[in-house]
Amino acid sequence: MSRPERSPELIKRQRCGFNLRTVTRNDEFKVKDEIHSDIVLPPVAGIFIQTPQFQRLRDILQLGVTFRVFEKANHNRYEHSIGVAHLARFMCQSIAEAQPLLNCTSKDRLCVLLAGLLHDLGHGIFSHIYEQFLERMHSLLKKSARLRAKYKNFPAVPDQWAHETASLMMIDAALESLGLEIDLKNLDQPLKQIGDGIDAKSMRVFDETDSVLTSRDLCFVKEMIFGGPLPGHSKLMGRPEWNEEWLYQIVSNALSGADVDKMDYYARDSKKTLRGVRDPPIDLPMMSNARVAWGECGKSGSKNLMIVYPQSMHGNACKFFQRRFELHDEAYQEKTSAAVSIMMTDILCLADIHLTLILKDGSRLPMSRAMTSPEAYLKLCDSFVAQMENFSIDNSNGSSLVEAKKLYERYQKGDFYTFAGEYVVNANDSVDAEMWEMEENDLIEEMLQLQVPSFGGGLQETDVAVGKFSIHHGKRDRDPVAAMRFITEQEMDSLRQIEVEHLPTAKPCSHRTRESFHKKGIRFFSRCAKKAPAVEDLFKKWIKERKSVPTYSPCEDLRIVSQEEADGESEWSHGNVVSQEDELGEDRHACNDWMLQSTEC
Q1: What does pTM read for this prediction?
Q2: pLDDT tens digit string along 575-588?
Q3: What DSSP assignment string belongs to 412-478?
């Protein structure tokens, strides 16, 4: 029997010298979602949603600048995160009810929900464009001592930084805004009370257990987001027992990639971008049939508790990863989207040292160092870059800021970079393999060497931008479905009565046969439309020098896809794309000396 609600007069009270508020059922969060219809999240989730760190996600677009190409793609990380929390609870509860001997507690389910809710707190400006921007800035600083001197007084970007790392920082900041803190010395106690805000002892599961969230539970939430032990720790602290490892696969599944994060954004992004997809369903049969069994992982053949599926779901799994390929191919880095992304990255690089974030102590941080301070990161939203509109074109502000504002004005007008050509790489061809391994600047330099000398100097390095693209089903050249494990229908029916130690061993299904799960290649863009024909001609010449047959390379002005066209039923041609989700490892944009040379078109 659950304890009665606290009376209103006790909602605010003094404890440990702090002004505290008690979490009640009135903090439950309700919303009508575009994909999932009615969503109701528990009071503790509602408390986190109220924090400034979570509200910031309203101003972080899910697909960055893709909305400049697909007019409906204006959804944000806020709504996606709420959708992931909803699906995380659904899958976890479905498994727990079907297999009660797993002993998955209501607190476990709440923690999994919170991991889904908070997993994207660390995304930067324009989502994954921020990571591309940091990569570009790293290359620029590496090659320019003069630029490094301008940044010498700023903190360095942490090694191996990723948005998941920033999510950990922003979770701590959200807790601090509630007057709470994780106490690593007292993991099994309620969160540490450090200031005014929410009573730590009222951060609880609202059911018959009335369990209070502890520091261990919040470590568990962070580990699910980070994908393993937290920085500075070699072992899991949240749920370290072997029979709990499957819980880590619901929000972010490192084994196969089939997780609720992708289930939500595949559906959400498809509805906004793919032709003929009006109401893409969440695959409820696949989610409701998820179970836990043993599975052999890796070459060692070691067994782990995994989320598995009945063999009848094999086709659903294939369609799931095919949708990933389609989204990357047709939306995330459709050639116009790729051009706009490179353009915004250029704008951020040019403006970085001038368009700074002002902290409470009066100090300033450039956008590329915002992740070193939760206060600065809270201010870094998509709308921040629009502050350039307030700067007058005055060389006293710095030449790169003048160039940034001019480029931003072009972006606002829809005068994007122009696609000049692309080459699809054959992984089995030695010449192609060599080309793929070349740095982007080296590709541009090699191409420019083929110019016939002309009056005026011809094309310059800053006239050309290059983007390597790599799209796949989730495991690059491998089939991600082969990493999943399946059980028979008979085994499915018996799971309810089986102890964890005696669960069946799930098997991979037969491998799909297809030529390739991976496409990659190189795209060239002209930063100035009037120079695009020259870039195209030189691109054709360069390819002909390297290969006997030139590739398809139409030079065309990039344009916005209208609402009517986006809703059309006709098929799209399948071009290669640059990944714009978490698997960004192989995707690169050219790093020209934009900070040191004129960019005026």
Answers
A1: 0.89
A2: 322 333 444 334 44
A3: HHT---EEEEEEE--TT-HHHHHHHHS-HHHHHHHHHTTPPP-TT----GGGEEEEEEEEESSBTTB
